[in-house]
Amino acid sequence: MSVEPRKKRLNKKDAYKYMTRLGWDPTYQKEEDVYPYLKMEGIKVHDWEAWEDPFRMTMDSYWKLQAEKDKKLYSIIDAFAQNNGQKNITDARYVNALKIFLTAVTPLEHKVVSGFTNVARAFKGEGASIACQMQAIDELRHYQTQVHTISHYNKYFDGFHDYRTIHDRLWYLSVPKSFGDDASTAGPFEFMVSIGFAFEFVLTSLLFVPFMSGAAYNGDMATVTFGFSAQSDESRHMTLGLQAVKFILEQDADNVPIVQEWMEKWLWRGYRLLSIVSMMMDYMLPNSPTSWKEAVELYIEQNGVALFKDLEKYGIKMPEDMIKTIRAEKEHLSHQLWKTFYVHSTAEAIHTWLPDENKMNWLSEKYPNTFDKYYRPVFDEYKKHADKGERYYSETLPCLCQTCQVPLVFTDIEGGKPNVFTHYQNEYNGERFHFCSPGCQDIFEKQPEKFVQAWLPPHQIFQGNCGGATIPEVLKWYKIEHGVDNMDYVGSPDEVMWNKFKNN
Amino acid sequence: MSKSIALLCIQATDEGRTIAEAIREDNEGVVITNKPAMIQIEREGRIVVNAETVSEALGRDWEPEELQLVLISTGGQIDETDDEFIVYWNN
Amino acid sequence: MATQSIGKYPIIMKDSLDKFHGNQLVYIYWYGHILEASPKAFPLPPEMPFGAIISDLIPLIYKIEPDFKDLDFDKTEVIWEIDGKVVVPDFSKSLKENGVGHKSFITFTTPSLTGKVGA
Q1: Burial group, residue A494, by CB count within 10 angstroms (0-12, 13-18, 19+)
Q2: Is C117 close to A431, i.e. CB distance below 8 A?
Q3: Which 27-86 residues of chain C touch chain A by CB within 8 A?
Q4: CA gap A283, A350 in Å, rounded
Q5: B2 touches chain A (CB under 8 A)
Q6: What percent of chain A has pLDDT over 90?
Q7: What's the whole-model pTM score?
Q8: Mind listing the pLDDT tens digit for each residue in A434-444?
C-alpha cells in the first residue's frame, strides 16, 4: 500500500538552529560573573558551538514525544494496579530486590534533577545547556514514575513506606547517597563525566538491563514498563554523556589528563555502587535470566572495552588495572554481598533468606570456579543455625570504606587470598582513614577535603546522632518497624500476606 | 579488522514490530532477536532506520524522531537526519 | 585534581575524636575468617583494658565461626597487628597504652585456625 509522499517541512538542522541558538554574549556584565563555574576545574573551552546534539531535540519535539510516552506508561501502570498485577510476580521474595532498587535509585533521580539544572545554568553553550535542561526534566519524569511504582507496591509489601527518610539514614543506602552527593557537589564538567558519561553511558546497562529482564522474568510488568520507558530517555542521556566527553577532549589537549582522572574515579565509584546489583541479580530473583558474571562479560569486558578503543583517538587510556580487578572479582562479588546482607538483616528495610537448593544449583552452574568451593559451605553453615531455630543475626557493626562507603567485604582475589578482606589505610590531618581498595584510597588522596566529610552510618550511630545507642532506638530512627520491615523473609508479614494471596 | 556490533533495542509493541521489519528490509545481515517485551537488533558497523521504509510499512507518515517512542537502548553513536536514524560505531 | 571550588573550601573532620563522647573508634578483624561479612567497628574507651577485646568483643563478633570453639588465647598461637605493625599486646594495660589510638585497626591472625568453612 503506498502512502502520500512525506510532508515537506523545515529541515531538522535549520529547525534545531533557529529554536536553540537563542543565546547572547553578555555586554554589561562580565562573562566570568555570569558563568562563574567554568574555569575552576581547569577545563579549557574555545568554541561552545562545537557541542552537537545528534538528536537535535527542540522543545516542541520534546514535549510531544515525552507526553506521548507518559500517556502510554501511565495507562500500563494503571492497568497493572487495576488488575492486581503484583499477584503475578513469581514470588514475594523478588519484591525485596525492588525495595533496594527503588529506595536507592528514586532519590538519586531527584538529586540529578538539580544536578542537571545546575549544569545547564553553568554552561555557556546553548547546545549543551538545552540538552542538560531536557535531561533534568527527564530525570524528574523518572523520579515520578518510580514514586508511582513505590506507591503501588507500598499498598501490599513492607519497606516502601518512607523511601526518602531511609535513603538519607540507612547504612547500605549511604552507598548510593554518597555517590550522588559526590557528583552533585563537583564542578559542572566533572558532573558531566561522572553522571553523563560514567554512569549514563558506561554503567547504565549494567544496572538497568539485567534489572529490567529480571523484572520481566519474574512477572513484574510495572517495573518492566517504567524501565523501558525510562530507557528511551536514556538513549538521549547516553548520547549527551558521550558528546560531553568528546567535546571536552577535542577542545584542548590540556583537558585530556583531567578527564582521564575523572573517568577513573567515576568508573571505580560506579563499579563499587553496582556491587549491590550483583547480589540482586544472582540471589534475589527467583528466576535469574543472567548472572552478574555474564553481565560483566557483556557490558564491561565487551562493550566497555570497545568504547575505550573508540576513545583512544582522543588520548584516553583504557583503565587496565580497574578492568583486571573487575574481572577478578566477577565470580565472587554477588556471593560476598548477599552474605553481608544476610547477616545484617536486622538493620535492613528488606528481607533476606538462604538460597534454596534450586538457586544453589544455578549458582554452581554459573560460578563453577567459586560457588561450591568458597560460598556454598558458608550458606550451609548459616543453615545449620537456622535449622536449629537460631537464624544468625550479626550483633556488631561493620567497618566501612571511607570513599565508597561499602563495608570492607571485598577480598584479595588478585593476590590469591579470596578469604582475606582487602584493607588499606592512610593518615590525613592527623586522623586515620580506611579503604577497601587502592582505587578508593586514591580517590580520597586526590580530594581529601571532600571525603573527610563522609557521613558514615556506623560512626554516626556511635556519635549518638541516630536516635540512640541501642539497636531498637536506631531502627526507630531509621523508620524501620522491627519484625515487619526487617529480618528473614521466612516468618515475615510479607510472607504471610503472599501465602494468603496465592491460596485465594 | 572486524567492526564493533551496533545495537538497537526497541519495545515489542505493534509499532515496534513493524519498525523492526522495516529495518530488516534495509539492513543486510542484521540479526533480530526476540526477548521479553523487547526486540534486540544487532549488526556489524551500523544500523539504518529509514523513514520512508517505515512510513510505507506503517501506512502513515513517520518521522525518525518518533523512534524514541519505542526506543529502549542503543549501543553505538547516534546520527539523526530528516530521513534516517542511524546507530553506528566508528572503530 | 584536589577539591575545586570558587571560594574557600573548609576542612571538616566528620569523625574526629571529640565527637565520640569520650570513646574512640576501633576496628577488629580475625584474619581469614569470612562468616562475619567484614572487619567490625566499635566505640571504646581509650582506658579500656586490651584484655576486654578478648573477653567481650571477639566472642560477640566471632562466635558464629566454627573455629571459635578452638580459639583459646592461653594456648592458640595469635599474631597481633595494630595499624599494620606486629605487636605483643599487654592485656592488662589499656588500649591507649598498647598503642591503639582513634580509628586504629587491630588484626589478629591464628596460623592454626585458618577460617576454612566446610570440607
Answers
A1: buried
A2: no
A3: 27, 29, 31-43, 60-61, 64, 66, 83-84
A4: 13
A5: no
A6: 78
A7: 0.93
A8: 999 999 999 99
Determine the Cα–Cα distance for residues C25 and C40; give it in Å rounded to an integer: 10
Residues of B in contact with A309 (CB under 8 A): 4, 91
Interface with A, mutate which of B40, B56, B71 (most A CBs under 10 A): B71
CATH of the domain at A478: 1.10.620.20
Residue A390 reports pLDDT greater than 50: yes
Check CB contact under 8 Å for C38 and A398: yes
pLDDT score, position A2: 58
Query: What is residue A211's predicted lDDT score, i.e. its pLDDT?
Result: 80
Of A3, A216, A303, the CB nearest to B56: A3
pLDDT bracket for residue A452 (50, 70, 90) = very high
CB atoms within 10 A of CB A432: 18
Query: How far is the C-alpha of C42 from the C-alpha of A205, rounded, in Å?
Result: 38
Which residues of chain B lie closer than 8 angstroms to A305, CB-CB?
none
C-alpha cell at C77: 598461637
**Number of residues that make up chain A:** 504
Q: Could you give the percent of chain C with pLDDT greater than 90?
A: 92
Q: Which CATH number fits domain B5-88: 3.40.50.720, 3.90.56.10, 3.40.630.30, 2.40.110.10?
A: 3.90.56.10
The C-alpha atoms of residue C33 and residue C20 are separated, in whole angstroms, by: 29
pLDDT band at B1 (very low <50, low <70, confident <90, very high): very low
Tell whether A4 is covered by a domain: no
Interchain CB distance below 8 Å, A54 and B77 = yes
Q: What residues of chain A lie within 8 A of the CB of C3, using their CB? A: 447-450
- What is the extent of the structural domain holding A266? 53-503
The interface pTM score, or ipTM, of the predicted complex is 0.97
Residue of B52, B60, B82 to mutate for A, most A C-beta atoms under 10 A: B82
